[in-house]
């Protein structure tokens, strides 16, 4: 069991190195994402992976955030707010 955990730790470390190498040319973008409050290391790597680097297809920051499922819903009807919760990301969605 301990051998399996060690192997998985090595694989995770290798994946992290690979992700960092692939994002190295785009460090200015990653740096700007890191400046966002509550964005940790995982979020700054996840956002470019989810969105891609050409974000013009989303037209607005709100659409891009909605695509990454980074913001809760905002349901409002007749001046009253309905229940809101963050959506769960699904891997099978297509880009807009």
Structure notes:
This protein is mainly alpha-helical and 96 residues long. It has 2 domains: 1-53, no CATH class; 56-96, no CATH class. 51% of the residues lie in helices and 4% in strands. It contains 4 helices and 2 strands. The protein has helices at 2-23, 27-34, 41-51, 61-68; strands at residues 76-77, 80-81. A two-stranded antiparallel sheet has the order 1-2. Helix 2 packs across helix 3 (41-51). The chain is extended, with a radius of gyration of 17 Å. Residues 90-96 have low confidence and may be disordered.
Task: Offer a quick outline of the entry.
The chain has 4 helices and 2 strands; from the N terminus they run ααααββ.
Core attributes:
96 residues, 4% strand, 4 helices, disordered C terminus, 2 strands, two-stranded antiparallel sheet, mainly alpha, extended
